[in-house]
Batch of 4 targets.
Target 1
Amino acid sequence: MEGKVEQELGSQNHHHHNHPCVEISMEIHKVETPPKRSSLQKLKNRLKETFFPDDPLRQFKGQSAKQKWLLGFQYIFPILQWGPHYNLNLLKSDVVSGLTIASLAIPQGISYAKLANLPPIVGLYSSFVPPLVYAVLGSSKDLAVGPVSIASLLMGSMLRQEVSPAQDPLLFLQLAFTSTFFAGLFQASLGFLRLGFIIDFLSKATLIGFMAGAAIIVSLQQLKALLGITHFTKEMGLVPVMSSVFHNTKEWSWQTILMGFCFLVFLLVTRHISIKKPKLFWVSAGAPLLSVVVSTLFVFAFKAQRHGISVIGKLEQGLNPPSWNLLHFHGSHMGLVLKTGLITGIISLTEGIAVGRTFAALKNYQVDGNKEMIAIGVMNVVGSTTSCYITTGAFSRSAVNHNAGAKTAVSNIIMAVTVMVTLLFLMPLFQYTPNLVLGAIIVTAVIGLVDIPAAYQIWKVDKFDFVVMLCAFFGVIFISVQEGLALAVGISIFKMVLQMTRPKTVVLGNIPGTDIFRNRHQYKDAVPVPGFLILSIQAPINFANSNYLNDRILRWIQDYEEEEENIKMHSSLRFVVLDLAAVSAIDTNGVTFVQELRRVLEKKGVELVLVNPVGEVMEKLQKADGTHDLLQPNVLFLTVGEAVSSLFSSMKGVSSSHV
């Protein structure tokens, strides 16, 4: 912008309150109206930005028909992208990482199935089919797929509200598979209909609080196994679990406590070693399997199951039986199944995509959110027909996979093959595995979900987010997992609504010696211009906030007039300048608000001046402005500096002609 700004401080102004008398000579630029577009074009653009922000069809432009088909198949099945370039070096890395995560997946699979009140074997079934499906459809190279603690806990606790897994195990299993089917259907349709922004409602603060709360709930559930209690509460909350633990002290078994404590300490120490030295990832990855082997041998050798140490018992051998005949699409439990599917689906999807994105960022590649949703969804739909319950990308397993040097999704295939061999030949070996080891494995796995440094960071940056996090945390611990989550999401949405309905308005002042206008609260040397009240509105103007803005602006005017009276200034208010640069959108209520404000100010003898309205706002104001009062050239400017310089000189001209 051309222009020089001379500021003469009028002697009398200087005398009173350091008001500058601004004299600016500069070129005035016209505010352009945006090019005309039909309503259809606008709608098309809006839909594209809503559903296709990543523009997935960009790669097809200018390709031959054959190439388009190939790209299409590669888009649907990412395995076709990296498969042709696969070589032996990559395979070596993938075999190592695949075997490493299998050694973790086998004990975790059995443990998490017990957490969901399902037969332990279902946990292994769920570590066999889903990884194979994901390897074909998934776009993450590091994600290791299988059952996860939080989704297992959610499914177990929600279904247990209506059906007892002890009294009616078959019905419980049917409901678990059906919930998984609906969860998968929901996840895949979110990706297919490109509605991924729905899971963005789980903010980082909500997730950190929720995960930490759930980790504590999951750990408390393990007290049953670690203390050897037989009559344990069916509730999930902190209070019922603790009262159950201390009411049943006579059931505590010292053998179980001693053995469980030893394994828990061993697992926590190995975890600590791997965190401190990521190169030693195999220490924490192999520890659970080693614990299972050692404890099983110990129980077998000393016949410890006769001395109060409870064991898993006999497990079936063989691969996943088909379970499509167990899916239940009618009857009285339909509502429960849909609700469970929806909630476990959203939570496991959020976890899977967050994990995928975390490792993609570390290795500098892109993960397509919508593709991931479809992959995880299809994986669960297929899983529900092959005796698997809900699965997703697990954080602990993916971290091990990443540290073990996984290069592609083949590590998932290697893991699945290892689990298959286990299912076919090694199941009888788990007969004497004590439950306390599974408890210790779960506690060690979920303790990583309590992220204290992240919580401290949130406290430092945003206190409101910290409150949201605490609500999620205490809600999960004291009320229940789903209600805690709902509470936190509710508060996050309330925060968004609050930001919409109470947008920020700030008073701008001139930085001396320049034509720059900035927030007077932030820039202490910015000074007011006599006769001008310059306001910046920093949000879209719509039905939710137009009344508030109206009241707030009238209050600014009152404040201005009081301030002028206090310092005995005689420059009464002549112009209210609204800087609309940050107003990205406006609706009919917003337009009415601008028109009404102009009328109210006119009665007071004050002129309303608009600065830099963006395309959409300008267009709507033009259409509504039948008399062309709002957008006359003398009340519409490109920058605040130009507005003030132009109006100030006209004001001077008027006042000098009156003398």
Target 2
Amino acid sequence: MAQDEEELRALRGHNPPHAATIIHTDQQAISAKGDSMSGSGTSVPWTRRVLHFCSPTRRLPILSWIRRYDGEDSTSDLIAGITLGLTMIPQSIAYATIAGLPTQYGLYAALMGSLVYVFVGTVKEVSIGPTSLMSLLTLQYTAGRPPGYVVVLAFASGLVELAMGAFRLGFLVCFISAPVTSAFTSATALIIIGVQLRNLLGIPRPGSGTAGGGGFFGTVLNVLSRLNEATLGDTALGVSCIALLVALQQLPRFTSARRTSRLHRTLWYVSLARNALVVLGSAFLAYRLAASSGDGSVPFHLSGNVEPGLPSFQWPMRGVTVGNTTVPFLEVTAQLGSGLLLVPLVAVLANVAIAKAFASEIAVDATQELLALGLCNVVGSCFRAMPTTGAFTRSAVSHASGVRTPLSGLYSALLTLLALGVLTPYFYYIPRATLAAVLIAAVTSMVDLGIVRRLPRPPRHSAVDVASWALCFTVCLLLGVELGLLCGMTVSLIEPLRHSLWPRADCTTVRDPSTGVRYRRIRPRNVPALLYPGVDRLRKIVLAEAHLQTAEVVGTSGEPALPLVLDCKRLVALDFSSVRALRELTQQVHRLGGTLYLRDVPSAWRSSLQLAETPYGLALP
């Protein structure tokens, strides 16, 4: 991931200035309109808000930018779309193998994801399709089951994403911190590498596979114990493909972009198409070896037959046929378990993060991106596609190719459709070791172990980030990615919960400039809301201040204690437990011989608290 971001920064110079404005201008207007409506609160009728939410120009962004589309945009999108397609097709074939699916399922996902996003997508660089992360999660929940379970998983994930978009639940991904995301993706990349070592070395798969086989270490140990089953042909081909992919990736660095721009551009395109070149070259080699041998044998394992053409429309809710029986849809979803929530959550996290990375000029419409991702999965599942999300590598390729609009996805989809209709007979000759090499080379950049050195550096940085990263990374490798993500999220929430449970306050003596009255002000300084987790802590602060005032009165002149005023200016939320606690706290302070008032109380609270005006502030009954 870190390497992809570095390449992205280096390639930003290839993007024309106009490319950053064609879509974003209209989207800014839409966002501004939405903000003005939402800011008016209850003054806007709910029917009007619903109509605005369902507005065709808002939910079909293509209606906004297609009116400005011109020949220059078409040329740029054509180049970007073809370049992206050459990257997407071999990746999709490889990602299908991670999920334990036939090759065509990855191509179905690439086709439908690219096509649907043209109409509903908002970020021109985002490429929707199969990814290594989605493939591994799919394998986690559907290993050993028919491909129909994968289709149902994609359909259910799409429904969850649509629901998240409809209810504007995109903020949920904010609960996954950056260290947890890094640990999750790094562990996932290592797991994928461990799983693909079998194909790279030509070791046969176990009889009944699981996603992890005892976790990452169990998978690696299993491969090491079966090294005697490795074949020389697969190993030689796989290692050679990895070396060739790395060499092709470094090609643009051998020339200066300024002095020899044409040569640099040529080498850059060759580098982008490296996956396609390696896959086609290996397939051609296998075809020639099979043709030259008498029995059609080759010294390495091949992918096998691929179903040609686009499948017909099939409604996923009809269930899954297993043998001579049909498993009902609800029973299939029950067997998928937590995957119905984890798969869409991770997909949303990846897609929104990629959209934010590329749409740096404007704020990303997260709601529309959720709806777009949900539609890609729902529509794709009707054509037997596996779960999809945005891919950082492909999005970087699209950005570097000078993409202008999401219409570039149409050209990628057409290229994928051409592959399904014409090239599928030749997919039989693609060696498995080559696909494993493509995957290993692609996910290696996702491993970001260097973040461990960066985490403790800031002087005020909490050890919680280090702990959440370490726990998430370890549990993902040992027990599974879904449990690791949950553990990492739990630990990372300790820091914000600590501030909610342990609010702090500044206590100072203040003189009111208008009345000259002195009082003791208590101002919470690290909590934005007064909610039930922090009530007891605030109660202790106020009572401690009340005891202090009483002690000063008794031990000195006997003058009346200064009234206590709770400053609510920085608080924006209040719950029922806090309302009741404030009333009880007022009575406790009164029994100690003091008084408690509230100041700068939001108007929405006043009716709930039944406050009365006083010279010091608002008093509770």
Target 3
Amino acid sequence: MATISAKSILVPKISSSSSNSNVSSSRSSSSFLPSVKPTISLKASYSKSRSFVIKNGLGTVETKGSSSGTNDVTKETKPTILVSEKLGEAGIEVLESFANVDCSYNLTPEELCKKISNVDALIVRSGTKVSRQVFEASKGRLKVVGRAGVGIDNVDLQAATEFGCLVVNAPTANTVAAAEHGIALLSSMARNVAQSDASMKAGKWERNKYVGVSLVGKTLAVMGFGKVGSEVARRAKGLGMHIIAHDPYAPADRARALGVELVSFEKAITTADFISLHMPLTPTTSKVFNDETFGKMKKGVRIINVARGGVIDEDALVRALDSGVVAQAALDVFTVEPPPQDSKLVQHANVTVTPHLGASTKEAQEGVAIEIAEAVVGALNGELSATAVNAPMVPAEVLSELAPYVVLAEKLGKLAVQLVAGGSGIKSVKVVYKSARDRDDLDTRLLRAMIIKGIFEPISSNFINLVNADYTAKEKGVRISEERIVVDSSPEFPVDTVQVRIANVESKFAGAMSDNGEICIEGKVKGGVPHLTCVGSFSVDVSIEESLILCKQVDQPGMIGRVGSILGQRNVNVSFMSVGRIGVRKQAIMAIGVDEEPDKDTLKQIGDVPAIEEFVFLDL
């Protein structure tokens, strides 16, 4: 693939059924995010006089100027969103304004897999496991998974990416609530609030037993200095604590601004009096707090965890508590939730526990519900959400600027793959961007994804988008390389030309082979419309909005009229013709745009014209 919700580019789009993963010619031609049936889809034919307009995620093109055809507006059914865990009413209202909403809670894995093939988006909290089996059972229909909260360890991101499903979360709405709960656990643990409360309710008065420790002047190590961790640090400083933090990805300037010292993992755990955990659960962090780690800590250290239970080896923590290395622990999360009733950790006298209440405030619940609902609706509309976890973030201004080039990129990919004759298959694709801009001023991720989409979707059963484009190419063993060439043109436009080269393959159309033996086509955007400007060694200038017939011929008078007459006699409408030649009365390529696919007899008649050496029909 900024804290913005980037609106989608409005590109020509033909609606498609989202009920399975089979590719058909009616699928969206230019959708770069997971897409579902929109409420309104536009199917249109256009003249060259038009312009791109950015709207809020409808994923279509609004045109200005004259039109050579008509716009048929077809109402489609609403997408379906499955909510598998309790979500705030405000969020449900956002969803219901856009989609059919199915609130089915406490589903077994089998029940979820049974339902998932009938939904376009799924919203979960931490209790639902979105496994590979779920994505397989969706049969390609599931396009968005929304995690109402921060952690996404209950979602198989690899599988989501493989199946082209966007995963979004809600990382900001519960930040303050989680930080406040961390501070609440810190304070109540230090002063034995939970234990003394239970003692009094049991009819006891044990002032001497529950003597606590002061927080002022103590060192708190914040392990994970993201949104929640930094908010905990801010509040703990107000309690007079000295704050250090460990996070290999945290910017030093942000830490300095809060008066926090970033230190190594080793220094954090060996010098802290209190350790507050705010790290995600990953293969690297799983059980990172274990016997070895506890053995390096100060005797009498106190630990707070409002992040993920799996980062602590719970058996090791019990041993550390029993030995006195860890004096106390305050835990809101556990490896298995809910933990077993006979859990030694939960029952330990020096442990304060809460049932995953980090985000459980009225304000946070409503905020998370709205945040995830808006993210899911935006994603179904084709928007690139700023909270997407498995797609590159492309800023809104870049999306807007690249709008017509997205169409060009996919069209070039579709043209290139249709020129391949088969044989050993495609092993490498090179994309060359010519631009007047510096390398750092040209973000090509979206264009690369659309070229991959154009190449692979017509020859596979996969739906390809920005989420899974690079993965798809890698899985198929195709190396995608990019080159950027600075040219002397106007920097007002992000790209001057885009060239697609496929090496070590045979071509159905020899005229598309460059001098170095590669299939080579090149295009550019003119007036907001994608044009094909080069085929092999031949310069052409044709709009690539419709399907094409390419004819390699001997340049001589009457060729345009002769081929045009054949098409006219067979009732095939010609939208344009263009001829590119290497010299007068030498070889030339004639490019013909057609509104309908000619039948085999018509194409044979064209091929029988004596001056035509070869031809190919390219379906766009």
Target 4
Amino acid sequence: MDKQQQQLSFAKCSRQQRCSEWMFHDVRSDIAIEVNGGSFPLHKFPLVSRCGRMRKLVAENRGSDICRIELLNLPGGAESFELAAKFCYCINFEITSANVAQLLCVSDYLEMTEEFSSNNLGSRTEEYLESIVCKNLEMCVAVLQQCENLLPFADELKIVGRCIDGIVSKACVEQIASSFSRLEYSSSGRLQMNRQAKCEGDWWIEDLSGLRIDLYERVITAMKCRGVRPESIGESLMNYAQKELTKKSGFWNSSNQPNLVTEFSGHERLVVESIVSLLPVEKQVIPITFLFGLLRKSVMLDCSVACRLDLERRIGSQLDVATLDDLLIPSFCHASDTLFDVDTVHRILVKFSQQDDSDDDIEDGSLFGSDSLGSPSQTALVKVSKLVDNYLAEIAPDANLEVTKFIAIAKSLPSDARTAHDGLYRAIDVYLKAHQGLSDTDKQQLCRLIDFQKLSQEAGSHAAQNERLPLQSMVQVLYIEQLRLRNALSNSDPDHINGGAFSAAMSPRDNYASLRRENRELKLELTRLRMRLNDLEKEQVCMKKNMEKSESNNFISSFSKKLGRLNFFGSSSSRGSSSPSQNSQRMDTKVIERTVTSAV
């Protein structure tokens, strides 16, 4: 407060000193004008000769020799009144883009019109605004910056509206000129637009970044109505956001001033919500990385629900171009214990999966709408499925991540989205490793997400030996591996491999040696699986003996029934079905017979 008082007193002294320099002193002042705590000792005649308001106020105080008048709510304060007083005293000064808005407002306040004096301050400033300022984009921006402290007077005098019209008109002219410069003739002789050429007509983007958010919003809205290119508007929004949302470090460094930090957070929230409302409706105009950046800010600043839902919908419509780093949104909510914001990502995935097919009135689905998003293509589904599997593997080690949320993320995509389940199996394996206290029911729910038939040979071999999986899942993997082995054995039959296999590039002796190697490897693999099945049978016997000792006959019978339903080698409904070990021996005999046959 002491510093502010010192600054005010210093400004008052300097103003009085400037006033004494241009005001004549041979006539004693007979009126004192007070504006915002500052006093101007002046003369009635120069003021009343040009100012209608001063004429009325002086007439009301006609009885006293020295009149003291206070001007309340004068736009521009003491600085604006000083310029108006100079004009009344015929002191020359230059009208520029830095003071024309102040002069227009103060001339209207003091009623300095042609009714009281010809070629008065109001008409001069109006002429300057119309003939010079409105025809120059940079000057219009400068005047708008001056209007920030002159509202609502500047709006009532239509200074803001005229400057915005000047900016938009100039931007449209520059856009048309740059479009003509990008025209070129194709190989067929047709005139076409070169989309790859850089647009040089967007130099105004940097100028607009200095405006306050409310005026900037009005400029961009007018540009969208006048048909300015969506790409140019998108670049302007990104440039403005980058400048306005990276000023926080200076505010955080200010010690013992928490009010400044709170005020700036409110300013950031207003900027984010305004920019989201101004985003173009066309797709692919705004990079998805920028959209994710806005979403992180909106979550951190607790922006409105409509703002966040709009961003989630836009991101969901082009999620196939996102990266893993984009999805890793930190959790800013104190009520959540997870490291990352899983709920937001789940809503984005739901938006991506539930895109509608009602695009009849929109070409190529190129616009954003509440119910007009095109259904994702199979290519996009495959890309997003890989992205989701990587995301699940990244968040799986979080000890506070609930199994229901993990399953919800995994099931948010259609069942046909994943062509391979290796990534999903890896994510579930990481989750099981990090959450070893899960119940058998939760483990089974997780493993039901995996289609073991879509696992690669390497992932299937790992799953067959993975002790973290439930027993039922391990048996299912072994069964699928056995089916694959059968197919491999049948495809490696020498009678099945005819002229295409015995090509001219390989001799019969090489083919014979290759077949022997393949049969030997398959035999070893079959032996390994048979040993694994024998181990499982031994474990079953041990469990059965232990359960008999504890007199749990009901549990043993139900468990045996469940194991009896499990089918290892195909159909078991026939009466002559044999045990797994007998089937393994029979297949082993077939392998030996095939080897002997090929040797002959």
